Structures are given as C-alpha cells and as structure tokens.
Amino acid sequence: MTIYYDSFPPIVRLIEVAPRDGWQNLAEFIPTETKVELIDGLANCGFKEIEVSSFVSSKAIPQLKDATSVFKAIKPFSGLKTAALVPNPRGLTPALAAGVNKIVFFISASDTHNRKNLGCPQAQTLADIEAMFKVVPDDVARRVSISNVFGCPYEGEVAFLAVDRLVGNLSILGFEEITLCDTLGVATPDQVYNFSSQLQERFPKIDFGLHLHDSCGRALACVMAGLQAGIDRYDTAAGGLGGCPYAPGAAGNLATEDLLFCLDRMGIKTGIDSQALLAVARRQAQVTNSGNSHMLAFSAGCDKF
Question: What integer best gives the mean pLDDT of the chain?
C-alpha cells in the first residue's frame, strides 16, 4: 500500500479516553478530586471531547464507581463534550441525570467477546442499544463503538462482512457516529485502510473514527492508513494507558502525546496544546505510578524534534 501524504485530512479530531479506558484497569483507586483535577487539565489542553467515565457496575469496574460525582464536579468548558460509556439500560438513567453530553454505546464485532464483555449475545446487545437510543434526549449526542473489529481474542480474525452487517444494523437504528475499535491491538495498516475505505463508501453519511491499541506496536502505522482512507477522528489516551479486561493481552491505547507530536510535525491541525498535554500526562504518571517510555522520551526532548 502506497501512502499519499497529500491526501491526509488537514484537521484531525482527537478524543481523549484516558479517564475512562486508561484508568479502568488500574488497581489503586484514584480519588475523585484527583480525577476531576486531571480531567479539567485535559479539557484545558483544547480537547473538544473527553470520554470521562463509564456507568457500569462498581463490582465490574471499581475504578469508575464515582462516575456521577466526577461528572458533576468537572468544570464546564465551552465547546467541550463530556462523554460516558453506557453498557446497558441500567446505566443510562444515572448517566443522563449526571448531565453527560454524549452517550457512548458499545457492542462487539464478535459474539463470543460480546458474551464475555457484556454477558449476553450480540443480538441482545443490539436490541438493548435500540431501546436506549430511542429514549436519549435529542440534545444529548450518541455514538456507538464496535469492539474487536480487526481481531478477537476468542474467535480470531473478524470478517469484513460481519463488521459491515453490524454497521448496517446500527445505521438503521439511526447512528451517525461509529468508532471502529482495535481492542486487541492486532490490526495491520492494510486492514485498517481496507475496512475504513469500504465502510465509508458503503455508509457515506456515517462519521467513522478509529480506536487503536498498541499491543503489537502498529497503532501509529494504522493511523497513517486511517488518514489515507480519510478517517479524521481518533481515540487516544494520555500516557498510553488502557486495556480491556475481556481482551487478554491487550496493551494500552495509542498515546495521545505520540500521535499529537506526529500530527504537529506533519502540519495537521488538532487544536490541542502539546506542552499543556505533556504537563497533564506527567501529572497523571505521578498519580497512577505509570511512568512509561512515552513520558521518558518526551522528557528527554523528543517533542522538540
């Protein structure tokens, strides 16, 4: 696959997901006031959307048991959408009551992972999403994320036709924003390009985004493929934190600072202040005891070259 840089979008939207996807697997509970501090810091960097938390069972994900308190305490920033992941109808009522700006539903491209992750068949989750979609007020945005689009830890490679069929069903429900997730981090650039290109051609009215994990070290390469396919929306996590408890072996998300540095150097605009982001990422590393190669590299001055 030849990469044509002049075909890349001039502006890219980065959705920060560290507060939800990045923190959900951390064993030590982050105090609510510290979460609010970090989220406010991220908002101040210029993000237009932050995935703040998830309204899930506190037994399943104890780290996010304070979702309501966090949403009610974070500062309102002009133009910022605060999103929450909602897995089932039980989580929808408290999410709406907390003042969430965007509800993010999710479903797996593979039935086995859907059963492991959500405790029911894919068909049941689709029915639940349809029921929830209908009761979300018009002034609250809606997105759906599809897990394991490029590979499942239980079923292996996922066929394009299975993803295409699921996107078609979600389109019929009325979704105009869909994120394709490489939950296991096994996607290859050609796979990302082919899936993204074909789905955009098949469903031109849908705003597609990519959510890439870096388990195999290919996330940035897959972004390049996504850019060439015309995808201009990407989920990333400060510090490269993250992982899925029901995707054994999945590493963290693509680090926001890594992608932001590349996009800045390539002349692609994001509206995000890279130095402000690094400050928040370093503070997060202190709080979570998660200093990693990303932060060490930027501390050494890689952000200046």
Answer: 91
